[in-house]
Structures are given as structure tokens and as C-alpha cells.
């Protein structure tokens, strides 16, 4: 019986190997294909909460209190989709949209931008300016995030994005709260634009923006920590005519880590 069992096992193995024939073995030794990434900001003043889409694909999600039912909150004003994390996106031409998350006007597109996404690159989509409750529309734009892997962990890298439609071009300044040294983060940045990434020593900074030729701060945010080896985007949102220091729609400098 032992001899017969061994012979049967050998025949089964031979049969399986024969069935495989000359099929090639898949090569998985190479690197995976480059992936593109994108993140989404709701910086449209007075805009409702939205879900962000690339074409027909939902790109952001909010936890629902009811299993199986989509949340009606969406990404609220001043928020960043998916907790500030990048979402994978296929390279190519895409229509990027913000759609109302609430039950009223559910899935109505209030912001839309067409963008070409390059392979392996990072991007940010901003709802911006002011939400128009009559036309139910908001501005939007896309900027590339040319982030790179850090090589020096004693510095942080920062850039400035201007999402305030009633602003003039502004320069972001970062003042080291320990040394007192103030650094211009790139040059003047107009609405719907991004400045250059600029390295600064790792520290706590007071941030401010100023228009060219002025010594008066337009927007101020104090006590912002920048960690070594990290990359950050400081985005301006709000309404430049608001002077309150507590209003939701006041001019504000948002700090979000890219990497």
C-alpha cells in the first residue's frame, strides 16, 4: 500500500506539472508603476459641505452614523478631504468636482475644474473664493505639489497657496520665534496660484502675509511648528474685508502637511 500511495502521488505531481505546460512565470521583481496623487480642500467661503469627485469616482469620504447610508455632511468649509491625506488617481485628463453632500441639492456640482494629471506627480484641488447661493457655484483650481523626498532633516520645506479671491498678490513670511529671523517664503502669490517651496530651519514660526512694498501684515498666524524633513503648504482662505479675529470667514492661514 505504501508503494502504491507513493506512485499515485508522483503521478499526480507529474500531471499538474504537465498541465502548466510552457506558461511563463509572472515577473514581479520590478518596481510598481508610478502612481499620481491628489488632495482636496474646501476653501470656498460659505460653501456647503461637499464630496469631491474625479469624473464619476468619489475621492473623499466622511464617516456616516448610519451603516450603508452616505454621510450628508461632506467636507465642510476650511476642511481637507480624507483627513489631509492624498488619494490615488489615474494619470490623464480628469474633471474634478465638488458636489453637495446634504440631502437638499444632493450631488449638485458647485465647483468644477478640468486638469491633466501627469504620471507619478502630486496635486491639490481647491474650492476657493466665495460660494454664490443664487447660482450655487464656487471657484476652484488645481496646483501641482512638486514634493520630493527629504535629504536634510534639520529643515522644513514650505510654500504658499492663495485661495482668497478678493486679495491682491501676497508674499508669505515666516519669523522664527527663537532667533527672530524672518524668511520670505517664495515671492508674491496671486489668487489661484502657488509659490515655490522654500526650506527653513526646523522651528516654531509666526506667519504673516504682506503685499509688495508694504510693511503691514495682511494675515497673521502665530506659533506654527514645522518639523524636520517635512513638507508643508500654507494656504490663505477667507474674506479679506473681514476684520474680526474670530469669524469663520476671516482671512486665515491654513497649514497642511504634504509629506
Helical coverage, percent range: under 10%
Largest sheet: 5 strands, mixed
- The CATH homologous superfamily of the largest domain: Immunoglobulins
- What's the architecture of the largest domain, going by CATH? Sandwich
Flag low-confidence runs: 1-33
Structure description:
The protein is mainly beta and 259 residues long. It has two domains: 112 residues, Immunoglobulin-like; 113 residues, Immunoglobulin-like (Sandwich), CATH 2.60.40.10. The protein is built from one helix and 17 strands. Strands 9, 12, 13, 16 and 17 form a five-stranded mixed sheet that branches. Strands 4-1-7-8 form a four-stranded mixed sheet, with no helix packed on it. The N and C termini lie far apart (65 Å).
Secondary structure: elements and pairs:
Blueprint: H1 2-20, E1 36-42, E2 50-54, E3 57-58, E4 87-89, E5 92-100, E6 109-117, E7 122-132, E8 137-144, E9 155-162, E10 170-176, E11 182-189, E12 193-194, E13 198-201, E14 203-211, E15 219-226, E16 231-237, E17 252-257
Parallel strand pairs: 1-7, 9-16
Antiparallel strand pairs: 1-4, 2-3, 2-5, 5-6, 7-8, 9-12, 9-13, 10-11, 10-14, 14-15, 16-17
Amino acid at each position: 500500500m505504501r508503494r502504491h500511495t507513493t506512485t499515485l502521488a508522483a503521478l499526480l505531481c507529474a500531471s499538474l506539472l504537465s498541465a502548466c505546460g510552457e506558461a511563463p512565470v509572472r515577473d514581479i521583481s520590478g518596481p510598481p508603476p508610478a502612481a499620481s496623487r491628489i488632495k482636496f480642500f474646501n476653501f470656498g467661503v460659505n460653501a456647503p459641505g461637499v464630496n469631491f469627485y474625479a469624473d464619476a469616482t468619489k475621492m473623499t469620504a466622511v464617516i456616516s452614523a448610519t451603516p450603508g447610508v452616505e454621510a450628508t455632511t461632506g467636507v465642510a468649509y476650511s476642511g481637507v478631504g480624507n483627513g489631509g491625506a492624498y488619494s490615488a488617481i489615474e494619470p490623464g485628463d480628469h474633471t474634478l468636482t465638488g458636489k453637495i453632500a446634504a440631502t437638499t441639492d444632493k450631488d449638485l456640482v458647485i465647483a468644477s475644474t478640468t486638469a491633466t494629471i501627469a504620471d507619478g506627480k502630486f496635486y491639490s484641488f481647491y474650492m476657493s473664493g466665495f460660494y454664490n447661493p443664487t447660482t450655487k457655484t464656487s471657484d476652484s483650481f488645481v496646483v501641482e505639489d512638486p514634493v520630493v523626498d527629504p535629504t536634510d532633516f534639520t529643515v522644513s520645506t514650505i510654500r504658499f497657496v492663495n485661495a482668497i479671491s478678493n486679495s491682491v498678490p501676497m508674499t508669505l513670511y515666516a519669523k522664527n520665534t527663537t532667533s527672530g529671523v524672518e524668511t520670505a517664503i517664495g515671492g508674491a502669490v496671486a489668487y489661484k496660484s502657488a509659490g515655490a517651496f522654500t526650506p527653513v530651519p526646523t522651528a516654531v514660526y509666526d506667519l504673516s502675509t504682506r503685499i509688495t512694498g508694504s510693511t503691514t501684515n495682511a494675515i497673521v498666524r502665530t506659533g506654527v511648528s514645522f518639523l524636520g524633513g517635512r513638507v508643508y503648504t500654507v494656504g490663505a482662505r477667507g474674506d479679506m474685508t473681514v476684520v474680526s479675529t474670530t469669524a469663520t470667514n476671516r482671512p486665515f492661514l491654513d497649514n497642511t502637511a504634504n509629506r
